[in-house]
Design goal:
This protein is mainly α and 187 residues long. It has a single domain (5-184), classed as Hypothetical protein af1432. Helices cover 65% and strands 0% of the residues. It has 13 helices and no strands. Helix 2 packs antiparallel against helix 3, helix 7 packs across helix 12 (151-163) and helix 8 crosses helix 12 (151-163). The longest helix is centred in the N-terminal third of the chain and has 16 residues, at 5-20. It starts with a helix and ends with a helix. The protein binds fe (ii) ion.
């Protein structure tokens, strides 16, 4: 049976993650692909719905779709990878996937504002990028963030993201997560 155009596009995204994801994830001890797989594995282990597992898997796809990302980071520029990634994914997925992806950086700024332990546990690279991304929210911005739809989902993705930098955390391979992504596709 021929593969539908939508599934073919999804498979192209997975192929991109499989190939480009072999690069190291910034200054972390894992590759982009390991980081993505670990985030999805943590989501699956918590029994998250398919759309959040897909969001966890693809939350940093904006690092990969942007050829300037690494060079810009090295120059100390923020490329807004969360928006690039969410916009890239919007052809395939609805808001339950794209908005947690778009909001996973604001979720870090929110958690730094409301959880004193959170910032202390960020990796050095994540602290560095936090400064580029505007730092912790002030009280008003934190209140505005948490009032938005998808804020709670974005915080869940963010917490998996932060834990998905462990060189010793084993995961299934990418094909294991294809069925979740298919279940999360826009209808
Ligand atoms: Fe990430």
């Amino acid at each position: 049976m021929p593969v539908s155009p939508v599934i073919a596009r999804l498979d192209a995204v997975f192929a991109m993650l499989e190939t480009a994801g072999r690069n190291q994830y910034g200054e972390e001890a894992v590759s982009q692909l390991q980081h993505a797989l670990q985030a999805a594995t943590l989501a699956e282990a918590e029994g998250a719905p398919a759309d959040l597992i897909a969001a966890a898997l693809l939350h940093d796809i904006g690092h990969i779709t942007d050829p300037e990302f690494e060079a810009a980071m090295a120059r100390g520029e923020d490329r807004w990878h969360e928006n690039l990634g969410a916009d890239f994914l919007s052809g395939l997925f609805g808001a339950n996937v794209t908005e947690p992806v778009r909001m996973h950086v604001p979720a870090k700024r929110y958690l730094c504002a409301v959880d004193p332990d959170y910032m202390a546990k960020l990796s050095p690279a994540s602290v560095k990028s936090l400064n580029l991304q505007g730092g912790a929210f002030n009280g008003n911005d934190a209140c505005a963030f948490i009032a938005q739809p998808h804020a709670a989902a974005a915080i869940r993705v963010r917490r998996w993201d932060d834990r998905a930098k462990d060189p010793n955390l084993a995961t299934a391979d990418l094909s294991h997560f294809r069925s979740y992504a298919i279940a999360a596709l826009k209808r």
